[in-house]
Prior knowledge:
- By secondary structure, this protein is α/β, with parallel strands linked by helices.
- It has one domain: Phosphatidylinositol (PI) phosphodiesterase (TIM Barrel), CATH 3.20.20.190.
- The protein has helices at residues 20-27, 70-73, 94-101, 121-131, 145-154, 171-178, 192-200, 213-222, 233-240, and strands at 5-8, 32-41, 47-49, 106-111, 138-142, 159-164, 182-186, 204-208, 226-230.
- The longest helix has 11 residues, at 121-131.
Amino acid sequence: MNNLxxxxxxxxxxxxxxxxAAFRMAMELPYVTWMEIDVQLxxxxxxxxxxxxxxxxxxNGHGKVKDMDWSQMxxxxxxxxxxxxxxxxxxxxxxxxxxxxKERMRLNIELKNAGNxxxxxxxxxxxxxxxxxxxxxxxxxxxxxxxxxxxxxxDPAVRRGLIFDSRWGDPAGxxxxxxxxxxxxxxxxxxxxxxxxxxxxxVGLMAWTVNKAKEMRRxxxxxxxxxxxxxxxxxxxxxxxxx
Length: 243
């Protein structure tokens, strides 16, 4: 099966997204080879794994990620909102996730840095990857082109990818202009022509977020190189492996 399974924020269909519980659950499935995670910085510069700029939806805290120190953030409950059985799950640091996944899983790390909200995040993350010996095991992705350019400056050895979700524009052209080797695209924006074009040029391609078997099959029929990013890796397994 060429259409690799990417667990979106871990096994986020069943566990609280972007928590160690969600990552461990995804890693229990042998066919999950990639996970997609989101990274921001605390006020004191610690890379943490959380999607929203606000703490309100996925924790019992309030306010902005950027306004809270790591010592405060690590005490928040990031699991109870999903299910009472996950009470006590914490927001993980990127370092914790790297240690968990090293030599077991590759990571698509989205840097949440719209408008350079987190100055220096690119250098902080690339240095951490290098210190763990994982610079070759990840792709750094972002909607923000400035962030991608600064990633290149921080460490040219780390693979970079553009995230694209627009009815208009030229994703292939933007990937080329940025010198990226990866395109992360909303599955509804992906066409057979674009998939063939990117694959022929050696650009990795990931479609998100795909939770229905019908859409997974459609993407697989479109091109074998399309990575399928899903909240429900179990549905991927049922669809393609019958497990």
